[in-house]
Design a protein that fits this description.
- It is a single chain.
- By secondary structure, this protein is mostly helical.
Length: about 120
């Protein structure tokens, strides 16, 4: 993320970009993810809370994906043209194929996901 942000700031053609701080370059959710991953790895989260946390994470993921999908304006998608629409569909199909391949290859430790 930091490398992508630095690269993006160098493409700014409106003049020399000020050197942004680390908190500007890294989104807050990435920092939160790293903090929580460190807390889990360090054993700071009690085992009794893991079940409810996993269920909550699955539910929140489904809600966020639905919100992203509901936020798409189909009229705008129709206006961008067929080539862009085909590129998006192909990229989604590739992501689905990679996901299914990884699930089959690595297996699931938790059983079926929330449906």
């Amino acid at each position: 993320m930091v490398l992508l942000s630095l690269f993006r700031s160098r493409l700014n053609v409106s003049g020399p970009a000020p050197r942004p701080g680390l908190l500007y370059l890294v989104p807050w959710f990435i920092i939160g993810f790293l903090v929580l991953a460190a807390a889990r790895s360090g054993g700071l989260i009690p085992t009794s809370l893991l079940g409810p946390i996993v269920i909550s994470a699955k539910v929140l993921t489904v809600i966020s994906m639905a919100a992203l999908g509901l936020g798409v304006d189909l009229r705008v998608v129709g206006r961008v043209g067929g080539r862009v629409t085909i590129a998006v569909v192909v990229s989604l199909l590739v992501l689905i194929a990679i996901s299914i391949a990884l699930i089959r290859c690595c297996g699931s430790r938790e059983g079926p996901l929330l449906y």
